[in-house]
Specification:
Three copies of one chain form a homotrimer. The first copy, chain A, is an alpha/beta fold and 348 residues long. In chain A, 38% of the residues lie in helices and 14% in strands. Chain A binds chain C through residues 48, 50, 52, 75-76, 78-80, 84-86, 94, 96-101, 104-105, 107-109, 111-113, and chain C through 40, 42, 44, 55, 58-61, 63-65, 67-69, 71-72, 76, 79, 81, 186-188, 190-191, 308-312, 314, 328-329, 332-333, 336.
Chain lengths: 348, 348, 348
């Protein structure tokens, strides 16, 4: 375990800003809190503290695991629909008496409690890739209390912690294990890329062999891929991109097939979101579904992972997600424990 | 009191699935918790627990009594607007990235806390009678924690408990007491039938003489009526249907006049909701109002009951609902105590 | 400190209904609770209590400081969007199955907890000046638990307490200090007048010299001004109205420039809201902005105050609100402590 004072007061915006040692410490704490929860042993480590959960987007797992988890730690979280407060906006996106500058919101909330967590991607960012992350960093710049990323348009670090916890529980040492982060089709084109990017990022700390699979046109952020490779140079593991789900799945220990959006047709890569072009790319790839036949190409005990909600019948068949290889509910549960660990460490 | 281990982990979806002995135990606990509350004696029986309140419909009493009551028991309830999570949907009513299958929602929430409560009827069910109940049973099927019905399109069992508590407080032994469950007019035709059905159901456990009064066309679910009669064969009491509010009220100990909808003009009885036909039935029966003149036909100390909100000036006059026979606020208060009893018993 | 039993069970609707001695006691308690908070010394004075926060309008500071503050006191507050309950309505503004009479809502909630707080002004009142206050008084009339005004269309007494706390912290004795409550331009014309009215009202208890500055047409409620003058006859201080921000600012100790609406063009002064006329008045006064040049006319250490959210670039320049004279975040923080003091005193 690292020295304990590296956490207090820190933000948790991207897993890539933490060291491997720090991530391992978070996971150790998470596993310990999971045991406490299993026994319902009180663990009110943040008694009397308050935090603010700001949602620009829908949420089931994130909202409930944060709100319930913080209560289990003895605190109280205010659930804030961004449209029911004066919607926090960065300079240039303000509207009188409807929005309030992020700088002001962050400074005010810092006076009332002990942490701020934010979810923002897609429509509320005007579909400008990176602006969600910019919002969260703007919060962090002005807040004097820790800021947590509950999914922006680049990263979903809490999901990443839950993912790696689940893999460790099922597979033990992850060194040399093969994970396939794959695109899958959904009729909804309005999808962020945070989950696959964070899944790769977290895997790159643990020596895993990463295969990124997607149809042409669904490329992820090259900067994230560069950081993944940089980690792999330190911690081991290989990285490969393939354009065929079936080919990618061969001998996989973990598959993570999931729909994501098209960066090349939204700003800043495109002058504006081109939904026609995006729709065509989606329509051309309806066969990217994780069904039993495809799953059989992987190892027999392969883990099927998904952050949920899954678009059943499109991304994945019922047989797979409800089948013996699926660990999606264990994965969802680990959100609770991972986030409690982060909160307990940084919000002291 | 029954053996205490019959409650732990159980769902509370319809009062008809509990035995009379079990219902009496819930009421005893409710009265005891009411005393505790009156003295503000701490009764934190569910310290550190979490539950999830999912609302597809508006609510004042239910939401506030559940949320405050659970806090009084030491727990924390997440209030969830169904449209702010990925709206839980049963198979066939799903929409990519907007809904999430009930099976998945139930399994995820089971990992984060200790109970799920749901309100669903009317529009969110597509006005298919029974589908609200089906939603709740689907939650219960998949959840590994207790599921509570906060009103579906068939039953409102928490209201029923509050109703029977209130009658017991005011009338003592209910054997042979006459209750009139009556339709009343409201300008809003979008009304569920859960309250009158549950009022009859709960009364049938206690030997009451039940009179169901409504204009022709407002028949309630024959299956529920059959169960009411079945209970009466065991526990005593009579059952009668009349089509005249005034006639029904004669010598009543309790009257419960309240608007409800038209089952014969919505599915499955009709191919689709026929709002014209429903509107006509409503318009033809505007004289079904509980006013002082009508109330005088009952016993002098008759209890006027209503689950609230009441459509004042339509269902009931101000003189009656604010008059000496009205017990509506005691009835509303008992929601708190009855629900706390249910939670304390099943969520241990 | 006044005798302590004057607070228990009382409503807090307007600061003008409290005596100076009582207000001073609230402030003493607020400063003490602020110290507790600074040290994170537990102060769970309302352990196990519940309150209901009803919002007809957006809120950031109010909602979060009440919800977090009440949790810090050991209680649990239900956040209620007025549109998600049966919207409480006064007689004459009811709509079947959508609204519920305030009298009924107040009586029901009184059975479930220990306090009700309400925010209502502008659109939900049909833009009839005074109707928001009427709503809150109607709640208070029927509730058997304390009612708190979280801003209506006449008063924002919690803001007033925070304002006076902040002035006392920065200036010490307020006797003879000059405060300028000034109108400022915003592109949003839908603004209440509660903040300037309450700022003048609270200042009038402490012997301050009050200058009210606004363009012609933006007159405030003469009844409030009369009460301000009445207080000043008792406690000292002068009152003056000027129609020039620059002239008003001269030698000011405190400036409070802020947009507000036009009472003469909404009911009851006008037969109906005349948004054209209001718009013209606003457009004609775009130069009413608090910039550095204007601020320099005041004393060098003048306090710049604002209740937030500020319409930056219109009401005030970034240089001023983010500059050395600005105390807006200290002011926002004091909302927390002032409200906790009120709650702790009246909700015992």
């Amino acid at each position: 375990m690292v020295k304990t004072d590296v956490f207090k007061g820190r933000d948790f915006i991207s897993e890539l800003e933490y060291t491997r040692e720090e991530i391992e410490t978070i996971l150790e704490v998470a596993f310990r809190l999971k045991e406490d929860y299993a026994m319902r042993r009180p663990h009110r480590l943040l008694e009397g503290k308050n935090m603010f959960l700001i949602f620009y987007n829908r949420s089931l797992r994130t909202r409930n695991s944060f709100e319930a988890g913080f209560a289990q730690l003895g605190g109280h979280a205010n659930y804030l629909d961004a449209d029911k407060v004066y919607t926090p906006a960065i300079k240039g996106m303000e509207k009188a008496y409807t929005t309030e500058r992020v700088a002001d919101v962050a400074r005010v909330l810092s006076r009332y409690g002990d942490g701020i967590a934010i979810r923002i991607y897609g429509k509320p960012t005007g579909w400008v890739y990176g602006r969600g992350n910019e919002y969260i960093r703007e919060f962090a710049r002005w807040a004097s209390i820790p800021v947590i990323n509950m999914e922006d348009d680049m990263y979903h670090p809490c999901q990443a912690l839950a993912d790696i916890m689940t893999m460790k529980e099922k597979l033990g040492d992850l060194k040399g294990k093969k994970i396939v982060v794959s695109w899958a089709y959904s009729p909804s084109v309005e999808k962020p890329v945070a989950v696959p990017q964070s899944a790769m990022a977290i895997s790159s700390f643990f020596g895993m062999d990463i295969v990124l699979a997607h149809p042409e046109g669904f490329e992820l952020d090259p900067m994230v891929i560069e950081k993944v490779k940089e980690n792999q140079r330190k911690f081991g593991g290989t990285f490969e991109v393939v354009h065929d789900m079936k080919k990618a799945f061969r001998d996989a220990d973990v598959v993570y097939p999931k729909c994501w959006g098209v960066l090349r047709h939204i700003p800043p890569q495109a002058p504006q979101a081109d939904w026609d072009a995006i729709g065509k790319l989606f329509d051309a790839n309806k066969h990217w579904i994780c069904d039993e036949e495809t799953l059989k190409l992987a190892k027999p005990d392969v883990l099927y992972m998904h952050c949920l909600p899954a678009d059943r019948g499109f991304e994945v068949t019922d047989e797979v997600i409800d089948g013996p290889n699926s660990v999606v509910f264990d994965e969802a549960e680990n959100r609770l424990h991972a986030q409690k660990a982060v909160m307990a460490l940084i919000m002291q």
